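Usage

Read records sequentially. Each one opens with the input sequence:
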Amino acid sequence: MPRILIIDDEKPFTELCRMILSGAGHRVAIASDGRAGIKVLQTEPADLILTDLQMPYGGFPAIRQLRKLHPRIPIIAMSGAGKSQLDLAGVLGAHRLLAKPFTSAELLAAVAEMLPPIPEKPTAD
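and closes with the structure output:
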């Protein structure tokens, strides 16, 4: 099962994302800011990172640091602050950009673009 780290300071939002992603078969960890997210990755590897841009120790410094420490982990940047903020996140190394608010279908589609498909469980005949 792919492991996804969500870095965002809005608890109701992160819990909703956790429910959506867990329901799709992903394991999800949550960090409340960029520093906490980097710490989580030291002990719990992730296959994908979703990070907000507007939060304490925001997404921009986190993306820069994550690119140095974990250059192969794909990053999806999320923000409601506008296209220019998302574009800058792309320049800094985010692989995919999501403008808030987004639908669960948009979230799942973005995650699917960044991760290999989850294998189906074999059925007993």
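Summary fields computed downstream for this record:
- The two ends are 24 Å apart (CA to CA).
- The chain has five helices and five strands.
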